[in-house]
Amino acid sequence: MKSTFIVGDKIYLRPLDIEDIDPFVLWLNDEEIRQYLMRMSPLNKIREKEFMENLYKDDRNVVLGITLKENDQLIGNTALNRISIPYRQASLGIVIGDKACWSKGYGTEALNLMLGHGFDQLNLHRIFLTVLSFNARAIRAYEKVGFRREGVFREHMYRNGKYHDVYYMGILENEWRERNGAC
Amino acid sequence: MENPFIVGDRIYLRPLDMEDAESFVPWLNDKEIREYLGKTSPFNLIKEKSYIEGLYKDDRSVNLGILLKENDQLIGAIGLHDVSIPHRHAELGILIGEKSCWSTGYGTEAMNLMLEYGFDQLNLHRVYLFVLDYNPRAIRAYEKVGFKREVILREHGYKDGKYCDDYGMGILESEWRGKA
Questions:
Q1: Domains plus CATH for chain B?
Q2: How many angstroms away from the CA of A55 is the closest CA of chain B?
Q3: pLDDT tens, A154-173?
Q4: What CATH number is given to the structural domain containing A142?
Q5: B132: phi then psi, degrees, rounded to nearest 5
Q6: 20 to 30 Å CA-CA from B4: which of A150, B29, B157, B161?
Q7: Residues of A in contact with B155 (CB under 8 A)
Q8: pTM of the predicted model, to two decimals?
Q9: Using a CB-CB distance cutoff of 8 angstroms, which residues of chain A are in contact with residue B163?
Q10: What ipTM does this complex have?
């Protein structure tokens, strides 16, 4: 293992660095991946390098790479963004870029690690996210870790020739603790 | 009227300029107003001027002052923000800073003008907004112009020692046209 930040069972989360640029540029331009993302502009190494250079400058965003423990392979990232002090909330994002790693439970494990970090270390009260209605695999994973659907922004985004609903999902600190046996 | 951009019945909307900065600073610091806006940071003239300095540089947001036709008094502002090209949606925000103008229908008129501009001129498909649950006057006004409640972000805001819900509301082009 290289530098670690949060260590799980099959994966660990670690800070991203300049040498991680290439896989992200490849993943975030991929048509299949980018249809699920909120942002879908073209991405090059210049923009991604800029993004990396600005990481960890303040404590409003925590972005971490998802890495397999068995071989240190980087497979994606997950983040808590726009952490708000008075409201003790943050929005969650995740991308599993390596498609061979889809549907293996790595994303679910990463979500659980990130929620644990948000609630147990950052002392958040609430974590929320938005997801496109046709991203069924992601919705299942979010529900599995305890997110509840809080509403639907009707016809909010346009993809592949038509408008799609966007779901808001959220999980509260007490819901997280109930599921994870608070001591 | 000075420099009108959209003219209504009793009010008109016009671009904001540097000399308007002084009106907004006390409004944005007022406890009641900033709680409705969900803002907790102090506001000064420097910050407001730099905000106004940045207006109208691109077409991703349209923010206009709300003025009374009878005496050209600036009473607030209304805007469409994060106008998205592919999704043809935008977020609506409104502030009536002049409290003597609350519950007079000016806000509703301003919203109707802005929605008409959004759907008929900017060719939007959808307009949405967020409002905190302790602002029933605003919620009624939004419902009156046709917004529907779509989302309840549970315990998303915080005021006076406790968490409160944040509502997401939206109106589609078809609903707006059905109503018009």
A1: 6-128 (3.40.630.30)
A2: 24
A3: 999 999 999 999 999 999 99
A4: 3.40.630.30
A5: -80, 150
A6: B29
A7: 125-126, 172
A8: 0.92
A9: 125-126
A10: 0.88
